[in-house]
What does this fold into?
Amino acid sequence: MFTPTASVGDFYCEPTDVTRGLTLSLGDLAGVQHFKDSAASGQRFQRTDVPRTLSLEAASCLSPTTIHISGSPPSEIGNALLDLLQGSAHVCKVRRDKFSIKASICVDGLQCEIKLRFYNHCGMCTVELQRYSGDGVAFWRFYCQANAYLKAFGGCVSNVVQNA
It folds into this structure.
C-alpha cells in the first residue's frame, strides 16, 4: 500500500486500507431505467383547471428552459407532458390547484428531479421546466424531448417570451 509522506501534524494523511466502491447486480438496476406505479400517476389535469397568470415581473425571471405554447388548452398540454413522463419517470406530485408537476426522471441512465410549472401569459400556455437536483445532462435531454414532443403534439411552440 502506498503511504504518502506527511508533514508533522497533518492528520489528513493517515494511512488507510479502506476500499470504496459500489457493485450492483442487474437485478438492482431493474428499477433504475423505468419507474412504475406512481401514486400521482392517476392524476390528470381537467379542462376546468386553470394555470396562474404570469405577471410581467415574474416573466422576466423565468428560466431559459421555458416553453411557450399556443393553440392548445393548458389542460391538454399538461396531460401531454404527463403522458411523456409515463414510463421514464416517477411522477411525485401533480398539483391541479397550482397547475404543476414534480417528477423524478431517468434519461439514458441519468437521473434528476424536475418541476414543471404552468402559467397563462399573453394568451399562451407557458411551461417553465426547472431542475431541482440531479444530473444536468438528464435535465437538458428531457427539456429537448419535451420541446420536440410539444411541437409534434400540434401546438405552436416558442422559446421566446412575448411581452404584453
Q: What stands out?
A: Residues 26-39 have pLDDT under 50 and may be disordered.
